[in-house]
Amino acid sequence: MDLRQLTEEVESVSKIYAGRHGIERDGTWFLLKLQEEIGELTQAFLMRSGQSRNKGYSAEELETNFRSELADVFSQVLLLARHHGVDLEAEVERKWLVWLVNDGA
Questions:
Q1: Long-range pairs of 3-8 with CB within 8 A, sequence gap ≥ 24
Q2: Are 40 and 72 in contact, with CB atoms under 8 Å apart?
Q3: Is the pTM of this model over 0.85?
Q4: CA distance 44 to 100
Q5: DSSP E strands: which ranges in 1-105?
């Protein structure tokens, strides 16, 4: 699966979610939803690493939750980029992968 296809599938799920819960997805919502998911990832990380109470979850549950929150953050980044018309593949190539071509010069 490529990134564009994944983005469109994530968009479909997001539309369903928003429709069911009466959410208007605008630029502010996409950014704030990403922030919310980063907060949840932070909490999952702290619980998994023993730096926060684990709320009675097993090590396996903590690991699953951490992985799930990573997926949520990644999906929200895809949605935010799509909403603003940003080609993430092109931007990663421009910003990151250039280092592989010319040592970042």
A1: 3/78, 3/88, 3/89, 4/89, 6/78, 7/78, 7/79, 7/81, 7/82, 7/88
A2: yes
A3: yes
A4: 33
A5: none
CATH class of 24-102: mainly alpha
Query: To 5 degrees, how large is the angle CA 19–CA 24–CA 30?
Result: 110
Q: What is the pLDDT of residues 10-27, one digit of tens each?
A: 999 999 999 999 999 999
Amino acid at position 89, single letter: E
What single letter denotes the amino acid at residue 77? V
The tokens describing 71, both together, are 């997926």
Rg (Cα) of the chain, in Å, rounded?
Answer: 17
